[in-house]
Amino acid sequence: MSTGDDAPAPAARPAPAGVYEGNQQDVRGVGVTGNVHGSIYYNVLPTADDATAEVLRPRFREGPYPARDVEERLRAFVEPPSFPQCRKILDRRVLLLRGDGGTGTGTAAFALLRERHGADGITGLDTGQDLTRWSPSAARGYLLQWLEPDVAENLSEVALNALDDRLRGIGAHLVVTLRRESPLPHGTESRQVPHVPPSAYDVAQKHLRTMVRTGGLTAEQLSTALSHLNGDEFRDHLGPGSSPAVGAGVAEALRDVASGTRNVPDAVAGLPSSAAETTAKVLNEVRGNADGLALTAAVALLERQDRTVVTRFAARLRPALAARTGQTAPVPGPETDLLGRSLEERLGQVGAHTLPRRIDRVGAYRYWTQPVMFRHRYQADEILRRLWLDHEGMADTLLDVLRQSAYQQGMDLTAGTALGKVLCHATGAGALGQLYGFASSDTRWQRRLVAYALGEVSQHSELSSAVRQQLRQWSRSPNPNLRCTAAETCAGSFGLAHSDQALGLLDTVLGAQPSGTDFEPRLRSAVSFALGVLLSEQANDEKVLDRLVRWLTAPSGTPRHTYAVSVLESLASGAFPERSPQGGRRLSLAGLVCEAPRAVLPLVLASLDDPALYDTVAKGLLDAEAAAEPQRLTRFDSFYAALSETAAKQRGVIRFVLSRVHSRAAAPGEGPEEGAPA
After folding, report:
1. Across-strand partners of 11?
2. Would residue 332 count as lying in a domain?
3. Residue 234 counted as domain residue
4. In degrees rounded to 5, what are phi and psi of residue 180?
5. Distance (Å, whole) CA 2 – CA 13
6. Quick count: other Cβ atoms within 10 Å of Cβ 664?
7. Which pTM was predicted?
8. Which of 76, 250, 424, 602 is deepest in the core (most CB within 10 A)?
9. Same-domain pairing of 118 and 217
């Protein structure tokens, strides 16, 4: 498999929970011991449910793009030379933009659509979308990135003209990006524009100036960075053949130089173009040393984790690597150094170092962490990729040791993201099958690791279909752990990028539960966590609530109906989801009545007509209305009026409306207002 994303530059690996502030974790197992009159000691022990709850935002989506994501992507945009021609072709409604990943093709497409429809007016389409049968639903900008070749064959001149008419009729535009080598039918040449990327130098300069606006650099530091940008040290890296991604990498390196955190030689050695050479040198130095190779692999897989986590993993990996060559521990003698080299010396040998210590905490328990990372920005990804792909047996060894490791905070996020990047380069139909041991695990952190890995892989258009197929298989498996993993994957960047498919997978997960059997708490929790992630973006409210209606109206006693009843009970009490993702919302039925009345109306209708739910839902709504602030009462009145008009003859609605009238009449000094529904 090969990578195919259009990211402007390889992003720094996400900071694991416990390293940077703001990361939310779902950590349990904090036991308190000691005499209550003396000190209190915290005994932090991992449990089977420990895992990181952070949700990574997707770079590519099928559906509306949040405006903040579009603005962030275009913050340092440099208009490419081919941009004027693209504008001209897009006036006809459809633009076919040819380019390569990493050259800014997708970024240019975003910029073109933002000009026409604003940052909040762009919708992504599935790479396999048959455009001959597709019609726009609103006056928006539509973006289909890296059109699949078999679909591209259908885009004849006649089909494109018909597509023009459909887009023009509703006031929409469409940009399709495709590989330079992708074949297209004859007659479409007038629609095609070859993307000409901006110079790497211009990209680097724009990134540096943007850093001043966002507070990343001071004006004085910008002057220092620009002087180095024009110097001999970076000139060879910004030649005519350099991609915009290289320019972005140079800007990041110059930021470190200007801020004093890195010297010029280290900054140059850390550029993407230098990563291969630096990696080859490091691996050549440690290839005969089990200790050095174990430490190198541990840092590559767990970069930015605490030094204790990295060294413990290296210690577990060392004997497995030594067994490959028959190395044994040296026999102590008169001259044996029993202490050995310090960690800083060992890290220095492999090009890594420790960062300053930071305070982290689990609940009320605070402790020090000291992250470890390579000195060069892209070294971890390059080393792990080389070990995984070029050296037989290394992938299996790393996975075996990782699977046997005890959970440490953030390990699932860090290792999962790293493995996802590697799998984007792996070959063979069974590449994703290497994650099976983690996906079928009883421990949640290993299932979350798979979720992070597949979320990363799914961001590459060529591989997203393989991820979907794998998740479909797991979602209908009789193994509840595999179904949990499918649900956990929907609770992340995959779910946010493919919300419709995520809801379909969750439906399959529930449907695979044998009727009449109790849900395992972990499965119920995984599905609820996934719904919570989807509901963290209001654009998904209507489709999630619609899915709940379908589950609630399923035959009584079926897994879907049983789960929907539990969700409505939580919503009625104002506590859904139980496990809220970082930045997510805790929802209540009353809150949805005020914030999304049209979307929640069918759900309220179905719940009031369900004998198992009526009492709980009716009480929740009436109690919420009684406690509501005066300015929100009119929203309840409007909602209940719509409820009465929609289902005036529905038994549950009639019963609830009468209960509401009696409840208000019984309240001191109150009675049914004129015009209130009855």
Report:
1. none
2. no
3. yes
4. -60, -35
5. 19
6. 16
7. 0.86
8. 250
9. no
